[in-house]
Amino acid sequence: MKALKYLLVKEYKQMFRNIVLPIVFIILPLAMMNVVPKVATQEVTHLNIAVVDQDHSDLSRRLVQKVSASPYFNLYASCPTYGVALEQLEKGNVDFILTIENDFEKNLYRTHGAEVMTSVNAVNGMKGGVGNGYLTQIIQQYAREISVDEGIIAAPAAEVKSRFLFNPELAYKPYMIPALMAMTLILLVGFLPALNIVGEKERGTIEQINVTPVGRVEFILSKMIPYWSVGLFIVAFSIFLAWRVQGVIPAGHVWEIFLFNIVYILTISSFGLVISNYSDNMRQAAVVMFFFIVIFILTSGLISPISAMPEWAKKVTLLNPLRYIITAMREIYLKGSSFHDLLSQFIPLTIYGIVMGLWALKSYQKNG
Amino acid sequence: MSIISVKDLVKTYNKGRTKAVDNLSFDVERGEIFGLIGPDGAGKTSIFRMLTTLILADSGTATIDGMDVVKDFKKIRQHIGYMPGQFSLYQDMTVEENLAFFATVFNTTIEENYHLVKDIYEQIKPFKDRRSGKLSGGMKQKLALCCALIHAPLVLFLDEPTTGVDPVSRKEFWEMLQKLKHDFKLTIIVSTPYMDEAVQCDRIALIQNGRFLTIDSPDGIIDKYRETLWAIRSNQMHRLLNDLRQTPGVLTASGFGETHHVTVDPSVLTQESLKNSLAALGHTEIEVTAIRPTIEDCFMDLQS
């Protein structure tokens, strides 16, 4: 085991003499925690809307004002006719059109009811759906207000009140940040090991190691331990950034986060080493690892929930280490789940890690 | 007892379609420099890789100091030094770090075996803090040799150590090997595609297409040469080669730098008659001399 110490010294020296790697270890978490939550947000705001107000009454103007005052909408244009507004939508200048009919005010006073029309550009389904929801909310709110202010008695409607648990503001950040941490890790401590052993193969240095008495276990450990330490540093750094920059703090224990990540890093770095052992050159290893990372990210529940997937796809996600860590990280951050509650994530992830670790050992063959 | 003993070694690639090493047997004596000499693709590296326990033979056996390359591979790795054809030290570590690293993985220290590498290491010591990737080709070779020696191996395997190295460094390198053999009685197995380096070895095996053409001392091989060999030159060297090949009595003719080497049937041709027939073809300044063959002549003779 004395050799292991020197193998490790060698690995660390190589890692930190590489000009790019240490910078990436800092930059990637910074970008993931600072920039990505802002640019990859699913919150929809500043939607461009065109208004066709054919009524030109006090009440119609009040509705237009209410819409444009909302943070969700920008009043892009007031158009004389629906046709003109539609042209704007076709040009891509606006995504929403609100049309108020000629006798809007009159109908409200007379029949206690009037209609408005919303038209939505649904090319981006999510944006259209969410925006339309906001617009409907604004119009309903307006209806309630004028029924009180103007004494118009609207037909009483059942009011639905929602109470959101664990994430009351339905904020995007505390939901995404724990998942982004897991993604940062797979990009670094999953990808780099995949290039490591095959890199030694390509440079021929593995020949020189293979004729030494260095054992298989020592060699693989010397490849694994540096990524473990770098990975845990990245976890700590990300937790710090999430707290200082985004104000996101875990509801659960920090030690739970570390415990999960120790196992998770073992799993993904072993995964990378297995690919490295089977690859003949770095290009091959990079393409294969990239393929797995993309599949893992898409099926991890990071973007779309696993529960929405077809049955067979749900089964496939059981083989995705990212799925367990993302679920666990979100539970720890948002719900503050106890470790006992998280065992259903921890046990499969641990088994996965042990299997991959043994496989990495097994697949490193000194005799070609 | 021989330090290395190889029996009926076979290695094939592509599921048996390519025979890299074809049923070879040979012995290497303690303290000798043994050369494997042959063109690229002759099977030299495959032999090295089997003896250094990096690949498994299809069949046959090999032992190093009585240890079997398959059964005792762990023990063997303690006792051999291997320098692959490609420079394979860590280019992002310094000269000194590389040497210390290889000493440690063999469970020893630089100090313990410094006497072995002293003469060589002194030459690169001024650059000990330079990363090995930034060394010149000759210095890289010296460092690689140091790293292969630092654990005091019984046998040193050098796979084409002089390929791609300039003539001066090549000469220096061979001097270092001779010194290692002389001072430490080290057994060295070296492969090379350069026939002119053969004379540096105590014994050589000429190898082609995975088979030995012959194994003997360089002098022994040359003494066995039975053809009549002349070196010939004239004022028009290029045309001369074609003319020679068409002259009756000339068996083979090939370019050898400044002269052409020709084997002849002495019952048909004498030096005088050849000179006359070449002069008749318009050559001037013709020189014909009988010469002692080189290893390359022997190789070409054995090849045909």
Along the chain, the helix and strand elements of chain A come as HHEHEHEHEHHHHHHHHH
Average predicted local confidence, pLDDT of chain B: 90
Structural category of chain B is alpha/beta
Q: State Rg of chain B.
A: 23 Å
Identify the quaternary structure here. Answer: heterodimer
Q: Mind summarizing the main beta sheet of chain A?
A: 4 strands, mixed
Number of domains of chain A: 2
What does this structure look like?
Chain A has 368 residues and is an alpha/beta fold. In chain A, 66% of the residues lie in helices and 6% in strands. Chain A folds into 2 domains: 2-40 and 172-363, no CATH class; 47-149, abc type-2 transporter like fold, CATH 3.40.1710.10. In chain A, helix 1 packs across helix 9 and helix 13 (321-335) runs antiparallel to helix 14 (343-363). The two termini of chain B are 35 Å apart. Chain B folds into 2 domains: 4-222, Rossmann fold, CATH 3.40.50.300; 225-303, Alpha-Beta Plaits (2-Layer Sandwich), CATH 3.30.70. The longest helix of chain B is centred in the middle third of the chain and has 18 residues, at 167-184. Chain B has 10 helices and 14 strands. Chain B is of the alpha/beta class. Classes of the chains: A alpha/beta (368), B alpha/beta (304).
